[in-house]
Automatic annotation (TrEMBL):
Top-level taxon: Eukaryota
Organism: Mytilus galloprovincialis (Mediterranean mussel)
Domain TTF-type per the UniProt entry, residue ranges: 53-142
InterPro entries attached to this UniProt entry: Znf_TTF
Name of the protein described by the UniProt record: TTF-type domain-containing protein
C-alpha cells in the first residue's frame, strides 16, 4: 500500500471524518445522522483496499448502491441509511458488524448487496433518509412547522 493510499484510508477511518463504524451500535441523534448522511464521502476509485482471501472491497459498488460506505476501522462495509434510521440490532451485518464477505457481495445467486437493497427494512430506512435530507436541506418543512399551524 502506498503512502497516499494509507493517508486516504487513515483519514477515512478517523471518526471525526465519519467512518461508518463510529456510528454502529449507537442510538443516533439528529446531529449524528446529519454527519453520517452528509459528511461520509464515497470511496475514491483510486483507493486500494486490503485483500482478504484474495478479494477486496470495490468502490464501484458505491455507484450501484449509494448507501454503501467502507470502514477502514473494520475493513467492512456499512449501510449509512440503515445506520441512521434502523433500530440497532446486535449482530446485524450492515449496521453492527459490517459486511466483509466480498466473495458474495454481488451476483445473481448470492449477491448480499442487492438482497439488502431490496429488503423491506432498508427501503424504509432509505425513505426516511430521503425525507430527512429534504428537511435538512430546507426543501421540505419539518413536522414541527406543520404542528405550529394547527
Amino acid at each position: 500500500m502506498n503512502i497516499f493510499t494509507e493517508s486516504v484510508l487513515k483519514q477515512q477511518s478517523d471518526p471525526t471524518n465519519s467512518d461508518p463504524y463510529f456510528f454502529s451500535g449507537k442510538s443516533l441523534n439528529d446531529s449524528d445522522r446529519t454527519q453520517l448522511l452528509f459528511d461520509i464521502k464515497m470511496s475514491s476509485s483510486t483507493t486500494v483496499f486490503p485483500a482478504t482471501d484474495g478479494r477486496r472491497y470495490s468502490s464501484k459498488w458505491e455507484e450501484k448502491f449509494p448507501w454503501l460506505r467502507y470502514s477502514i476501522q473494520k475493513d467492512a462495509a456499512f449501510c449509512i441509511n440503515c445506520l441512521a434510521f434502523c433500530n440497532y440490532k446486535d449482530g446485524d451485518v450492515f449496521t453492527d458488524k459490517g459486511f466483509n464477505d466480498w466473495k458474495n457481495a454481488t451476483g445473481s445467486k448470492r449477491g448480499v448487496l442487492l438482497s439488502h437493497n431490496e429488503s423491506k427494512t432498508h427501503k424504509q430506512a432509505t425513505n426516511k433518509t430521503i425525507n430527512y435530507k429534504q428537511i435538512v436541506n430546507k426543501k421540505e418543512k419539518d413536522t414541527c412547522f406543520y404542528l405550529k399551524k394547527l
